[in-house]
Write a structure and sequence with these properties.
The chain is an alpha+beta fold and 521 residues long. It has helices at 8-11, 38-49, 82-114, 136-148, 181-194, 307-321, 366-382, 402-413; strands at residues 27-34, 54-57, 73-74, 122-129, 155-157, 170-178, 198-200, 205-209, 214-218, 223-231, 249-258, 267-271, 278-283, 290-300, 330-337, 345-348, 356-360, 435-441, 444-450, 456-460, 471-473, 478-480, 487-489, 494-496, 517-519.
């Protein structure tokens, strides 16, 4: 995204400790957890507390997935609004949603204290303010529903306490929190090891089989045998269709602008827009400078060809509302899975054996959804009843959100029409250095990336999940699938599921002798 900015992983710097190693032999455990973000590690931690032996496998270094791309709000002020959750899940469902997210914040606070994790945890208030297109009834509807859901301390205020921002009327949600996400999951991973669990990084999973025993196989050729498998990979890599038809992927964008220290407010802020904006304050780890962090501009992954504009839109939004005029010093985007009825899918994988569990559908609240998943799945694995199990059941039918389900299904299917197109370019000379494009070569569709020195790197443009055609993301130099959100780097390696195989390397397209060609990475 350019050398003028630092990204999320630079913002969320952590103290370096000895790296976890990759798995190097066949192993056995009660439970194998696939995915080393906040969901997978919390599941593993809670299972260990219940006496289970646990192995965690992560494809990369811990936190390089979506946990490291969060703006790190810990909130029970759910962005799908309590009056909507009441409509979709009933009053009891909305109450359980509030209860479970509140419990998740409490659990993070408890774990960081008990395990002595220095993750900058801090309780702060959150404030929901109106977007320009909304009026006061939006807030009064929400405060009434929040009170019915058990959040009796939510109050209507004339404005937020952020002195340099006249928000107008807002709702105050007390006892929210913020923290440093990577320091927390590092501490969680070391706590898992101290309790006898095993955490392996750079251990990519290639196959998951339920049954007794279940088996998890890695690309290195090693197998973990276990009594249960938990797939916590943001979007399941073991579920081909069922979940992905009701859990579309969205890109969300973040920019950070320096602010004067006397303007910083210990608060979280969100507006009522669609897509909404979310705000907090952080420190630049290199300079100690205070930064106003703003996110938003969400859109379906792979279905916007002007990704760069979203960063500019966010910066303009900041300048229009806050008394700051600086340039952005940090920016990034992340992947948000949006369940069609607003709540995550946590529990047994539909259509699978009864000992395979999934966690997905963060809906902008991945840190609390992932944490409550630790409590819920640990109970399910050991056969204990949990009051949230039905609410988050991945097999639930979207009857009250049927129109949304149909709309999202259409949006996921329409991009298959790319097969009928000629591609972005007809000749490799039309591709600029440092950019990529899809082009037709006979009957094949190719994803062609031209690096900074003019060499070509050519893969099939066919997503290895369900055969959609990827599209080039110029802002992030990635290949994104517009059907179900799989993402690949410029050389075709998987970044995000549900795909779990790289784009197939292909022969180079027809080029002139003046062109240098390399296929694959």
């Amino acid at each position: 995204m350019g050398s003028a900015y630092f990204d999320a992983h630079s913002l969320w710097q952590r103290c370096e400790k000895p790296l976890f190693t990759s798995i190097h032999q066949n192993m056995k455990a009660d439970v194998c957890v696939v995915g080393g973000g906040i969901a997978g590690l919390t599941v593993a931690y809670m299972l260990l507390r219940q006496g289970q032996s646990v192995i965690v496998l992560d494809r990369e270094r811990l936190g390089l997935g979506e946990t490291g791309l969060t703006s790190a709000h810990l909130s029970n002020a759910l962005d799908d609004r309590y009056y909507n959750l009441e409509r979709l899940h009933g009053r009891d469902g909305a109450r359980l949603a509030a209860e479970s997210h509140t419990a998740a914040i409490d659990l993070i606070e408890t774990i960081q204290a008990e395990e002595e994790i220095d993750c900058e945890f801090r309780r702060v208030d959150g404030f929901l303010f109106l977007s320009p297109t909304e009026s006061l009834p939006e807030l009064t509807k929400e405060i009434d529903a929040a009170h019915r859901a058990g959040l009796r301390d939510v109050r209507l205020l004339p404005r937020t306490p952020v002195l340099f921002f006249d928000s107008g009327p807002c709702l105050q949600f007390p006892e929210q929190a913020q923290f440093h996400p990577l320091k927390y999951i590092d501490g969680l991973a070391y706590a898992i090891q101290r309790k006898g669990g095993h955490v392996f990084t750079h251990s990519e999973v290639s196959e998951i089989r339920g049954g007794h025993p279940a088996q998890v196989k890695t690309t290195q050729g090693f197998t973990v045998e276990c009594e249960a498998v938990v797939v916590a990979t943001n979007t399941p890599i073991n579920n081909r269709v069922t979940i992905h038809t009701k859990n579309p992927a969205y890109r969300t964008y973040v920019v950070g602008v320096p602010v004067s220290r006397d303007l910083v407010a210990p608060a979280l802020l969100w507006d009522t827009g669609d897509p909404y904006h979310y705000i907090r304050f952080v420190k630049d780890p290199n300079t100690g400078e205070d930064i106003l962090l703003v996110g938003g501009e969400d859109h379906r992954t792979g279905q916007d060809t002007h990704e760069e504009k979203h960063f500019a839109n966010l910066l303009q939004w900041v300048h229009e509302r806050f008394d700051v005029r600086g340039r952005a010093v940090t920016r990034w985007s992340g992947q948000v899975m949006e369940p069609i009825d607003g709540l995550a899918y946590i529990g047994r994988n539909p259509g699978d054996t009864d000992n395979v569990f999934i966690v997905t559908g963060d809906s902008g609240h991945g840190l609390t959804h992932g944490t409550l998943a630790g409590m819920l799945i640990a109970d399910l694995v050991v056969g204990r009843d949990n009051p949230w199990a039905t609410l988050y059941d991945p097999a639930r039918l979207p009857l009250r959100s049927l129109s949304t389900y149909v709309k999202d299904a259409v949006e996921s299917t329409m991009p298959y029409g790319d097969w009928l197109s000629e591609g972005d370019v007809s000749d490799v000379h039309q591709i600029e250095a440092g950019e990529g494009a899809v082009m037709r070569d006979g009957l094949a569709k190719l994803a062609v990336y031209k690096d900074e020195v003019g060499r070509l790197h050519t893969c099939s443009a066919v997503c290895t999940h369900l055969g959609g055609l990827v599209r080039w993301n110029s802002a992030e130099k990635t290949w994104d699938c517009p059907c179900h959100g799989s993402r690949f780097d410029r050389f075709g390696q998987v970044i995000n599921g549900p795909a779990n195989k790289e784009l197939e390397p292909m022969p180079d397209p027809t080029v002139t002798n003046s062109e240098t060609v390399i296929t694959g990475p």
